[in-house]
Amino acid sequence: MTVAVKEKIAMTDAGVVSTKYWHVLEDGRVQCDLCPRECKLHEGQRGLCFVRACVENQVVLTTYGRSSGYCIDPIEKKPLNHFLPGTPVLSFGTAGCNLACKFCQNWDISKSRELDTLMDQADPETIARAAEDMGCRSVAYTYNDPVIFHEYAIDVARACKKRGIRSVAVTAGYISAEPRVEFFEHMDAANVDLKGFTEDFYWKVTGGHLQPILETLEYIHHETNVWMELTTLLIPGYNDSEKEINEMTQWVVEKLGPEVPMHFTAFHPDYKMIDVPSTPLSSLKKARKIALGNGVRYAYTGNVHDAEGESTYCHACGIRLIERDWYLLGEWNLDTNGHCKQCGSQCAGVFESGHGDWGAKRQPVYLAHYRE
Known about the structure:
The protein is an alpha/beta fold. The chain contains nine helices and 22 strands.
C-alpha cells in the first residue's frame, strides 16, 4: 500500500537523504524493506508513512533533520515509570506514520501530508548539545513513530551517547527484522504500544498486523539491553474485553516475563473515532487488576487521575515504592540500588539514588540559538 501521490523529489531537497533498507524489483519498482508494509514504489512515489519515497531508483528519507517541534517533558509522560523517574526528557518527532490507526491521538502530526508541519530544524549534534545544556537526562523520539525516521533517530542517538544522554523510543514496534536490530542497538529505553491483542483489531483499526509487533517485543526483551515498558490504549468495545486483556497479559508474563511494566491508558474520541466514548476509569482499573492477577508485577493506569494506579508497589511485600500523582513524585522507598527499603526485593528498572524533580512541567523548546 502506498500514498496516492507522485511528485518531483530531488536528492538536493532539504531533509532528503539516502537509506539502505530497500531493493529493486523485477518490474522496476523499488521496495522499501524498513517495515512489514514493504511498500513498492515508482519514481517520485511515497510509501504509506509519507516520509520515505522513491528518488533516482532508491528509497530516501525526506524529513532528515526536520521536526514538528521540541519540548521538555517528564519521562513519565512517555510513559516510562521505571526509567530515571522524575527526570526531564527532550522530546521531538517528525511527520508521518507507518500505521493508520483510526484512533490516533497525534493525528495532526502522524497523518500530516504537509511538510510545513516540520517547523523546526536541527542536526543530531544540535539536539544532543541542547539536551545536555538544558539538563535533560534523555532524548525521546516520539509524537510520531521513530521507526520511519530510522536514520535520523540513530544519528541523534549516536550524538547523544557521546554526551552521556540516553535515548528513548516511543514506538508501535512495526519494523522489519534487519532494521530492528540496528535501531534498537542505539536505544536505551522504549515504550512500545501493544495496541490490542487480536489480528482482527490490528488489521481493521490500525491497518497493520499483530505478529510483527509481538516479534519486536520478544526481540527487544530477549536480545537487547533496552529497558522496555508497554502501553495499551483501551478503546471501549474494541480492545477492552476481559478475554483479550487476559490473553494479552498472560502472553506478556509467559513470553517477556513478569517484570515488564504495562500501562493501560484512557482513550478519548479523536481522528476517525469521534463517535466512540471515552474509556471509563473502571475499565482501566479492571485491566490493571487482571494484569496483576496474571502475574504482571507492575501495572498502571494512565490518562486519568488515579493515584493508586499511577504508583509503583513492591511485588514482594506490597509497600508503595514510588508515589505518583499525575506526573508529580512523592514518597520514595527505593534504596540506591533500586531495592525495596522494607524487604530488600529488587524493583525492575533503571534507577539512581533518588528521583529527579522535574515535576509535571511541559516546556516547549526552540533550538535556533543552539545551531552553530
